[in-house]
Amino acid sequence: xxxxxxxxxxxxxxxxxGSPWMILTRDFxxxxxxxxxxxxxxxxxxxxxxxxxxxxxFHTVICNTPEFQNTTINSTLRYINWDTPTTGEPQLLKxxxxxxxxxxxxxxxxxxxxxxxxxxxxxxxxxxxTANGIVPGKWCLGQGMLNKSTDESSKDKxxxxxxxxxxxxxxxxxxxxxxxxxxxxxxxxxxxxTTQCQQQL
Length: 201
Prior knowledge:
Membrane topology: Single-pass type II membrane protein
Main location: membrane
Subcellular location: Membrane
Number of domains: 3
Oligomer: single chain
Pfam family, one: Branch
Keywords: Glycoprotein, Glycosyltransferase, Membrane, Transferase
Mean pLDDT: 81
């Protein structure tokens, strides 16, 4: 539900928009929460009951705040196949897209159908995760199986972490290293520009 009435465009700031898919830094999120000049809160109130606020809010905060202006990488880091011009929706990603997805170096993808075999393939080959298992890492020192059902005879089990480890111990896998390479290429190829905040709505 959103308002249909038009509202006066603010004079104090400019409205910017873009993709709702983003990765935000800790410093920026702290500013959005604490907002020493109260701008993030004012904007939140302004966008109340508007359509698609996620496509406006963070972009507008970034581009109206000198500390964060033009610090963006213009990429969603997602593999999306838009080969469906008649519907305007991305294709559902299947096993047939797997090799292209991996070759793209994208960190994320959309859209997937629930329980599609391609998800299992990603779990096994990219995340090194077994069926109903957890992603391995130093964050978990012990693993065990637990029934999702109250019926002990049920085969519907998932793996849980029985002994917590160090959640701050992060060692990138080969795909984590590929992500770092992708980000470096985006920066090198000029996807971080001083003109990012010139295209307002």
